[in-house]
Design goal:
There is one protein chain. With 405 residues, this protein is α/β, with parallel strands linked by helices. It has 14 helices and 17 strands. The protein has a 7-stranded mixed beta sheet with strand order 4-12-11-10-7-5-6, with helices on both faces. A 4-stranded mixed beta sheet has the order 1-2-3-15. A 4-stranded antiparallel beta sheet has the order 13-14-17-16, with helices on one face. A hairpin with a 4-residue loop joins strand 16 and strand 17. The longest helix has 25 residues.
Length: 405
């Protein structure tokens, strides 16, 4: 085989991505090294996936131990790691039942199917309408991309599934006007991640809960990005004190191993009876073994407290640098999900900060063209943060000079 380079991507991969020029080959904690040995501080974490950093020794040990025992059995059989992980999720949340799948999109797909099946079973076929919010993101399947409320992700894939409408995020009056006895579910992110890092107000989530109760609809929280410690709570709903009927989880759930889950209550779960839904790989023993260890670590009070402290440190430093270079009109965050909205002068240039960040040895991300997003590991060290901000300051200075001359 010929040498693997970035050009290999262009030769053999479907061109639906535009990856960076460098190729990471090794990671440790919040540091990553590319093919040329260049070191980077990773403040993206695989887009909120590597919640405990790269090559975490506890997760590596859990995966290796399971790899020597059992890899796959399908849903014809159950397995001990899946049952252990599900039990922990139930013990740590409102849930009574868990469905495992492979990704966040699949978890949301299962949640939406559950909502329609539950409504059909209990109220009839007319109760099938789903309300989501504009500018949200729920996955790339045809069902979930339709729920996402961003037209750019649907273009060229129409016709899309019907029965889905949208209201503005945090607009309780709009939700009240849209919901009816025909609504089977309201789907919402506690914090819009891909949509620009917009936290929900307590009024909006509490009102959504009340409206769902009034109209016998399920409240679904998409916690793909906000879950597993990201906000300083194991799941973001615990910080709002609003309990959903269904919750979806993925990304950091496997600490880097692909896995997703849908959590719900016993009475709602009954509608997904034998044969109604499934996943060949769902509940994979390898992934579930890692999930158990992730939950053990992230659910520790000291881990969640550290998230809040680190968040304060990062936001304070970003505020100082933003003022120094005149970059940000607003910094929004929930724990270590942080979005910095650029001022008008820098609008449309969020990607430039990512590219220059790589040149300076720090990995940043975007949430749209106008928002720089940070999603560092929950356990990022003080030393890693110090190095990161030295490189961020150089990045900001370089972009500011290019814009201002």
């Amino acid at each position: 085989m010929s040498e693997i380079t970035r050009e290999t991507f262009d030769q053999v991969m479907v061109p639906n991505y535009a990856p960076a020029k460098m190729i990471p080959v090794r990671g440790e904690g919040s540091r990553v090294w590319d093919q040329n040995g260049q070191e980077y501080i990773d403040l993206v974490g695989g887009i909120a996936v590597n919640g405990l950093g790269h090559a975490n020794s506890l997760l590596v040990e859990a995966l290796k131990n399971q790899a020597d025992k059992l890899w796959h059995v399908s849903n014809v059989l159950t397995n001990e790691p899946a049952l252990e992980a599900a039990q922990k999720l139930c013990d740590l949340t409102f849930a009574d039942k868990v469905y495992f799948c492979n990704s966040g999109a699949e978890a949301n797909e299962a949640a939406l199917k559950l909502a329609r099946k539950w409504a059909f079973d209990n109220y009839g076929a007319h109760k099938n309408e789903i309300i989501a919010t504009y500018n949200s993101f729920h996955g790339r399947t045809l069902f979930t991309v339709t729920a996402g409320g961003q037209a750019k992700y649907r273009e060229g894939f129409e016709p899309v599934p019907g029965g889905i409408s949208h209201v503005n995020y945090n607009d309780l009056s709009a939700l009240e006007a849209a919901i009816s006895d025909n609504t089977c579910a309201v789907l919402v992110e506690p914090i819009q991640g891909e949509g620009g890092v917009h936290p929900a107000t307590e009024e909006f989530l509490e009102g959504a809960r009340q409206l769902c109760d009034k109209y016998n609809a399920l409240l679904i929280f998409d916690e793909i990005q906000t879950g597993v410690g990201r906000t300083g709570h194991l799941y973001a709903y615990q910080g709002y004190d609003v309990i959903p009927d269904v919750l979806t989880s993925a990304k950091a759930l496997g600490g880097g191993f692909p896995i997703g889950a849908m959590l719900t209550t016993e009475d709602k779960a009954k509608s997904l009876g034998i044969g109604t839904h499934g996943s060949t790989y769902g509940g994979n023993p390898l992934g579930c073994a890692v999930v158990s260890k992730v939950l053990d670590e992230v659910s520790k009070p000291e881990t969640l407290e550290q998230v809040k402290k680190t968040s304060d440190t990062i936001v304070t430093k970003l505020t100082e640098l933003g003022e120094k270079f005149g970059l940000f009109q607003e910094i929004r965050h929930g724990g270590l999900l942080i979005g910095c909205e650029l001022t008008d002068k820098y609008h449309g240039r969020a990607k430039d900060f990512v590219i220059e960040g790589h040149n300076q040895g720090v990995m940043l991300h975007v949430a749209g063209a106008n928002v720089i997003r940070l999603l560092p590991a929950l356990n990022i060290s003080d030393a890693e943060l110090t190095d990161a901000f030295e490189r961020i300051e150089k990045t900001f200075a370089k972009i500011a000079k290019a814009v201002n001359g």
